[in-house]
## 1
Amino acid sequence: MIGRHGAPDNVGLMADSEYSDVVFSVHDTGDHVVRERPRGGAGAWTLLVLAGLVLLATVPVALVVLFVLIARGHGFGYVALRAGPPIVVVLAAALVVNALGERLTGRPSVGTRMMLGIGLLGFGATLTAPLGYAWSDHGSNLPVLIAAAIPGSVALAGVILIGRAIVLTRGALRRQERMRELRARGRRVDGVLESVRFLKTWAGGAQPEFEVVTGYAGERRVTARLVTEPERVPLPGARLWVHTDPVAPDDTDVLVELDATVPVEFDPRVEEYRRPSGDGGGGGGG
C-alpha cells in the first residue's frame, strides 16, 4: 500500500500498535463490531468445530447424570462428585467455543451466540427425547405434546442461534477480508476525530460505545462507532489514519484507526464510561 506521502506501508499487515484496542467501525454496532484478527488456520477452525461437538454431546450427558442422581435422592456431595466431571467438561467446551468464535472472527457476538445456541439445542433435545418416546408408546397424547412444546422450543431457539452465529461469522470474515484489502491496496490519509458522543451502551459487557465523526481528505466526513475501554476514549482532535479505496475515494467504506506515530490524549472521565453495576448494558441486536 502506498502511504499518504507516497511511501509503502506494511502491505496487508494487521495494525499492531498500542492503540489496537481502540476500535472504529463504519458498519457495525455493539457486540457486532469486528476487530482485526490474523487469518485463522485450519487447525483453529477444526478446534472450534470439535469444541462445539463436545459441548453438544456432553450437555445431554451432564443433564441425564444430574437428573438421575437427584431422582434417586442422593445428597449434594455425592451429586457434585458424580455430576461434577461432565459439568466441568461442558463449561470448558463452552468457554473454548466462545473464545475461539470471537478470536477467529473478531466479532464477540459470534462466540456468544454459538455457545448459547449449542447449549440450548443440547438442553432442549435432552428434555424432548423422553417425551417423544412417551408419545410413541401411548399414541396421540395431547398432554405429552403440550409438555414437549417447551423443551422443543428451547431446542428450536438453539438452532436459530446457531444459524445466526453462522451468518455473523460469514459477515465478519468478509469484513476481515475488506480490512486486509484496504491495508494492502488502499491509500492511507490523515484524518481527525471531530466529535465523540457517548451512547450509554456497552459492548462485550464492559466496553463503552460511542458515535464518532471523522474528517479526512479535506471536506470528507464519515460517521462510525467506537468501542474501547473506559480508560481509552480519545478526545476530539485526536489524529487518525483513514484507509480509503483508491478506486472509489468517495466511498465511506473505509478503515479508521488512531495515528500510531503520535501520542493520544484520552478522556479523563473514566468513571462516567464504566457500566453501572446491575445494568444489562446492551450493544447490537441480532
## 2
Amino acid sequence: MPSFTIQDIDNLDDFFKGKELPKDIEIAKGSIVSRPLDFVSGHILVLKTHIGQTLYEPFYLRLLTFKDELEKKLNKTSL
C-alpha cells in the first residue's frame, strides 16, 4: 500500500488553498519554515510527482506537521 495517495495530496492541497499563511512558523523545535507558501507549493509538487513512493514520505509527513502547527496557530488566534 502506498504511503500517501493522490487523494491525500489533493486533500492537503485543498486545505492550504485560500489560507492566509503566516510569515514563518515553527514546525518542530529548531525547525522554522520561513517561506510557507514556497514550502507548501514545493512539497505538493514533489508529492504529486512521486505519488506513493516511500522515499518521498518525509515530504508528506513534513506537510502534515506543518498543517497541524498551522491549525494550532489559527485556533489560538481565533479564541
